[in-house]
Automatic annotation (TrEMBL), chains A, B:
Pathway annotation from the record: Cofactor biosynthesis; adenosylcobalamin biosynthesis
Lineage: Bacteria, Pseudomonadati, Thermodesulfobacteriota, Desulfuromonadia, Geobacterales
Biological source species: Geotalea uraniireducens (strain Rf4)
EC code: 5.4.1.2
UniProt keyword NAD present: no
Family as reported in the entry's similarity comment: Belongs to the CobH/CbiC family.
Protein name, entry field: Precorrin-8X methylmutase
Amino acid sequence: MSVHLRPEEIEAESFRMIDAEVGPHPWSPSEWPVVRRVIHTSADFEYSRSMFFSADAVFRGVEALRKGRGIVTDTTMAYSGISKVRREKFGNGISCFVADPEVAREARSQGITRSILAMRKGAADQDNGIFVIGNAPTALFELLRLVRQEGLRPDLVIGLPVGFVGAAESKNALLALEAEYPQIPFITNRGRKGGSNVAAAIVNALLIMAEEG
Amino acid sequence: MSVHLRPEEIEAESFRMIDAEVGPHPWSPSEWPVVRRVIHTSADFEYSRSMFFSADAVFRGVEALRKGRGIVTDTTMAYSGISKVRREKFGNGISCFVADPEVAREARSQGITRSILAMRKGAADQDNGIFVIGNAPTALFELLRLVRQEGLRPDLVIGLPVGFVGAAESKNALLALEAEYPQIPFITNRGRKGGSNVAAAIVNALLIMAEEG
């Protein structure tokens, strides 16, 4: 029975099924492995139409991973979902400050979300360049503020907040970055869907590409 | 702007939007908060039709949580996604053995998946009663084997593997449990979708009910 296949065979078979069901698509050879892994993680074919990559985002993201640039996530789920084994091959550090006691204290005293302060803390470390947001619109809005007002220049933004209040709006704001700051690569999707699992899957797809070269 | 709402206001507003978009539905007053939180986590309304609860699953799950029964997850993402603060109120332990070095060694030597051995290890501890599977069909198949062949009687099974090979089949096998073992409560969905984020959201919904009820 199919579930007795080895994990790598299950993945290959899954990819064959996704290829067959999606059929002809507009994605470039570097973008498709990312979109396909998102569909693999979510079983949701809507991503085959809703994903968006800024120019050369995959190439630039792979390059940043190979350079060992640090990864910042907005949730511990995204943190957990990014392959430790693959990440450690390139020495990419990873951090998530949303549960940090100092961040919690500051958030209370300033009356703003922990997600905002967690992003700020992650961005303050010069070793960090890859920002992965799978949940909080406020984290993505804060990252965009850091770009516009404080000169932050991320190596890659993976922005896929999910939800009903602010998620789609935060991704529209990210999409607007392309015209303003064409040198900042980003990967996102349109609409309400997204999530920490999907954001982590994108990083994993890029890590596999970084390895395979 | 809406993102300046406090987190609890954002959630309430999201729930109002979900209620309005779903409209009349067949879920009971105890099931709906679970389905709604799954939609909130995924922004995917398909769950408003594809979820399935065995008789009294929510009531029995809430009861098991209140008794402090241990939680076993198949992925570190599901582990991370379950609210630590809420869980600790009832003293529910949590474990995930998929990255356990002993499990990895055994999996290699026996030629079976780590997910299978991780479930087996979780089930061996009598304090564990709540099994949360958001990724691996093999973990869910193994749990069902433990029920049938080794007399395991979980307090609750949350089975939502995602994917293209084995996921829907593993959930069909779980659905078949209802006729065979009507005393084992479970929550699942039909089809390929699912995921660690969704499985964790179900536990969080039950934890909130355990607290409020």
